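A brief tutorial aside. Many learners find it easier to grasp structure tokens once they have seen a single protein encoded end to end. The record that follows does exactly this for MFS transporter. Read the sequence first, then the structure, and try to relate runs of similar tokens to stretches of the chain.
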Amino acid sequence: MTTHPSGPSAAPIVDDTPAKAPANRWLVLAIVALAQLTVVLDGTIVNIALPQAQAELGMSDSDRSWVVTLYALTFGALLLLGGRIADFWGRKRSFLVGMGGFALASAIGGLAASGDVLLLARGLQGVFAALLAPAALAILSVTFPGGKDRVRAFAVYGTIAGGGAAIGLLLGGVLTEYFSWHWCLLVNVPIAVVAIAVGFRVLRESRAEGSTRYDVPGALLVSLGLASVVYGFSRAEAGWGRADTLGFLAVGVVLLALFILVEARSAHPLLPLRIITDRVRAGAYLTSIAVGAALLGALLYLTLYFQIVLGMSPLVSGLASLPMTAAIMVSAGVVTRLLPTVGPRILMTAGPLVAAAGLLLLSRITGGSYALEVLPAQILLGMGLALIFVPLQNVALLGIAHRDSGVASAAVSATQQIGGSIGTAVFTALYTAAAATGTPEGSAGGLQSLVDGYSVVFVAAAVALALASPISWFLVDVARDEFTTSDEAVHLG
């Protein structure tokens, strides 16, 4: 059977991977899931450790912000190139090298005795994550070519993508409170050792056949363009009218526009335009941007609310975030069974609305009871995210030729990274404006001004999520039988 085509003008591409899935595919899923968890939680686990690391290493506030920015910058800028390297060089090889490099960078950061070394390590983490993340998702895509097992595999992957950030907050709280900030980075080393040892034995190599020439102009344009956009949004936290903010955003947009023009004319494009111009995948990518923005922004300010307003320790704050993750995991099992029956369109339309309802409920916080004001909202948010994440990865890679699995997987991660950068910048600006209209933080009513700012952020995140609902309804129109075909019968191309 031929699945959803890559676009109206997509040329047929010879399948380079056997259609029959390997016998040890569930062990492959475990290794890929472990790698995904490492990449996702590393975006939040360090946030908990930052105050302690800053004090110990004598870092300025500016240097502290770069600990977060450098990871996002290198990761986001190199994702598409990393995905193409995985396609051409080999997905197993790229996975193992990416995992090993990520572990080495984590060890350097965990043992850092100065702020400069820590910053270098975070940049290196982003570089290797840009190779690891698309390779892992591409391996999953070619290991589970179709059918109900593919739905289950991507449900696990999507659950980790949705809940990994909250797990990072919990793990960061435990390690910071009972050990030290160093372990928030060093914890990646034993995880990587296990993933590499098992992955070396069970992963099968796969790569694109035919021409494997790299699109050097495209790689330079998209890397510099994405880096400029991500950095521009990171600077927007200090003010949207700043010259550097507007300048980097403008340069990024121009470079990405030039990238599209180059790809349209290239005989060996880094990102074949059929991948992003397909209506269904475009809907999935736009939804991914909206969800990435809302999720990362909401989690950041929910954590601040726990620690500053409710006075929770880092550990208790991490525990307080778990209900959302639990709701995602429980709901994911239900959604996995529903997907072959109702298809992704209804689920991805309802999911943003359910999650947005949770955020709107969260916006009614007063600084009072966690059980009454926060817990029900987290459960709704988790349920809505499960409705989105379980089908999202599936839809984004549906019908992708095996030749393009790596770069298409990178495009999924890139949309989430860009969404997170946009969300953090926009929500920070909204929070700052809302909190500034209240009473000063140090005064008797200072906490209320913070609560007002957090409420505005949650409303804005709800709006961003709600926008994903019509996008999914009008664009993500996939037949249900795409998710019920047996693995052996599927042929992508």
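Self-check: Residues 58 and 173 are 21 Å apart (CA to CA). If you spotted this yourself, you are ready for the next section.
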